Fold these 2 entries.
Entry 1:
Amino acid sequence: MSFLKLLDEFNLETSNKEESERFFSRKDALAKMSNYSKNFALAALPFGAIAAFSKPANAQSTEDVVGVLNFALTLELLEAEYYNMGCEIGIIPDEDRAIFNVIQKHENAHVIFLQDTINSLGGTPIEKPEFDFTASGTFDPFNQYPQYLALSQAFEDTGVRAYKGQAGNVQSSDQILTAALRIHSVEARHAAEVRRLRTMRGLDDIEAWITGDNRGSLPEQAQAVYNGEANTTHAGVDATTVTDISDEAVTEAWDEPLTMEEVNAIASLFIVPAQ
Amino acid sequence: MSKSREETGQSSDLVCATRRPISRKNFFKFSGLSAASFMALSMYGCQDSGLGVLDNKSGGNNGSTDKNADVVKLGAGDIGILNFAYALEQLEAAYYIQVLENPYHNMSSDEGRILEALREHEVAHADFYKAALGDNAIRGLEVDFSSVDFDDCASVLNTAQVFEDLGVSAYNGAGQLLEDTELLLVAGKIVSVEARHAAAIRDLLKPRTGFFAGDDVIDENGLDVVNTPNDVLAAASAFIVDEIDASELPQPNN
């Protein structure tokens, strides 16, 4: 069966139970087949198969969407305060100010945008938590510029993964999905620039993109920011098997999501628990 | 199946003469095309200067005999959107292949390394879409980069910036047109890499400034550039010889 036929058959607005059962048994068969002949199985099959069952839950409630937006707002509040403090304290040398002025401007704009959006949905934007950017004394970013840059990179790369992980959870609203995607790519630009800056300053030898799950010279605590980035299977297709490009480069060519829980575990290092 | 950069002929120290007059000796390293780029070239690349002839041997889904004379139909629904993305990735892949086939003479090592990585990433994206779409994939597109001066650093990097920003705007605009959540995630995985590319190219053009996320692409709400497929295709058509039929693509509501 061709990809198109599969898609036609199942990607319609059908929640026909019989059909979906029929499909899932076929999906199992496909999964088995690709286990037995990994390099042989036509990549089109799993792609079409996935298209068939992951139709968005159009039942995303406003409450759910507000929850996602408040999750995003927490990260933006963290980033905005980090850059506001960095710029105010004067840890950023003149030659790097232009970069961080732009990042600071964007994160503060994101905070306001998300607060406005949550309000317009009838939700309540969360209050700004109390942040501890030393992570209980582990880091000293406002006195050590290399650490400031390291945390900046970790925050930006985490932000990219956080938005990516939530795209499907706001898919029922075109406007909110598109806004989230547009923030997401801004975070990626930030991440790219900070990564390049760290390498330019001799602090690391990383590129603007993430190779494997390599955290470079970031401290061990930052590994959670990169775990899972080495994945090369997307929508059921192992991208390394359909190209002559090196596996290393393939890992760079796709960024990976983090779940809300994974992001919260990272962010919570920098959030003082509410009393 | 595991391919390292070295095995695929991608040497990480591939550099050309830096414009800082230190190591011109590396220039000639570029004259040897790597195995991978050669492969890719035969799939996406162009022959002659600027006017590529590209005949996809396996992509045609219309059974036509004279492929180049035919309109390229992207199709409907998610397939249409994926073909739209595939067209852009083909364009980008073909571009960087040609850039590195004829590297401008004063290419710095930083520029060479970045452009090479971009070529690898875009080829990987295009290969992925082609495989994933299977019989529904559009054919290999014939590209036209005659407006680019490949000997000129500014022309090459400015065009790269246009392509990368366009790619970001395309994925940002197409996300809401995808029905399938898994495909939305795939698009999300790719768009952030395109954004990293855009930032890196912009940083080459105006190093260590705010240009990597400049006000020309980011609005006052801190939102990145977004375009409808039709607007993206209108911009891309300057570089694509084939006529593309996007009439069946889903259209944005807002």
Entry 2:
Amino acid sequence: MHQPDEDDAAIIERSLRRPERFAAIFDRHAAHIHRYLARRLGRQIADDLVAETFLVAFDKRARYDLGRSNARPWLYGIATNLARQRQREEVREYRLHVTVAPEPDVDGHADRVAARVTAAAMHGLLAEALAGLSTGDRDVLLLIAWEDLTYDGVADALGIPVGTVRSRLNRARRQVRAALAPTPSKESVNHG
Amino acid sequence: MDELALLKDMANDTPLPSATDLAPARARLTAALTEATAPPKITPLAPRRRRRLLVSGVTAVGLAAAITAVVSFGGLGPGASEADAGEILHQAADAARKLPATPPRPDQFVYTKSGSDGGLREAWLSTDGTHDGLIEQDRELDSGRIERDRTPMPGCRDGQRRVMRGDYDMGMFEPCTPWPAYRADLPRDAAGMRAYLSNPAYTPDGDPQGFNRLIHAAFVETYVPPETLAALFEVMADFPGLTVDEDATDAAGRHGIGVSWTLPTDEVTLIFDPETHALLGYSHSDWSSAVIDRAIVDAAGQRP
């Protein structure tokens, strides 16, 4: 078994020769990756994509940067890519099966979270605002707001510089604020 | 409530899944891991790699030499004890002290060629951490073919480092602190080293993992002054519970004298050349690495 204080880099390094070691990476991070995918795409798709995330990670482990002791941002990056891929496939599918109940905004920058989260009016508004964001901006915003990644972590996950994380986050927040502002509500939203 | 707080609130609807929820995904992964562990992929690897390592100019120390070495260590018989292990480490320290002591120039590179079960690897790391280095690593494909990954290691200059994803230049910079491959900052005598290692940052609560990391830093792909290396061996010589393996084999297939100490869940072995007492490699319970060649060179990509 792996040692409790062994970091992810050490486990991944050993898994090059001992693939079964890689299961420890799953045990450490799968719950969070699953929850992230469930938030974005729903539980059912998350069940499927969480396995794919770790299979892809396992295949790519020889290229893992061993200087990074925590593998979670890397896994978020893989999960994000798979989620995007899945969305594109689904958009195609919707177009083929036009009889399927329409999902809002499935063309262009649709994110299934927009359709799924309708519990509260505010959440509905938020979901719409999210659906209106560009894919890259939405990825940054959700990794920070939902997954508590640091700017560095997001940069690592998405393979973009920290400066870009910052600018995307600013733009995304501005857009979401603007989308929420026109609707008066008990919790009035301040203009930045 | 600002938009980030609203978003967080929205995400609270989704709980973390239980182990049971994750079980099907875990089963899919472990099936793939088991398949990857299947012997046909691993077995042909070792002889081929070993052969290549041997023709790379490294002296293979044969059985005869190993026997000679046992004699030269002075009566390492069947009952080799902790004292013998200590003696080997003291001799290794003496050998280390005889290494050339000229410090590398800041613009040079520490070249290390090493072999491990992960494949052959060559690294050129900037001695002061500000110059662009390089790592090349062989990777075994499923087909059995070996592919070589080239990973540039951008230097950190004026607090800025180019952002690379693998070998792709993002055309951007990120803040950084230099990581020098020449570690002139470590203590150069046993007392200093002992004090240094008792620093909780390295051995929190006597955590041997911390010590492991230091060994990794000192022996693998970095260059320390000979006195520092000697000091490390001197400190190790006092480790309790050391054992000696007179016929240990490193990851390159070279025979040597192994000195091991046991951790709660691991066993670490250093393998020394029986004649020169130079460190050949090290291994854990299931991972080993052999330093085949190391040198100071003037440019990344240059071989000695």
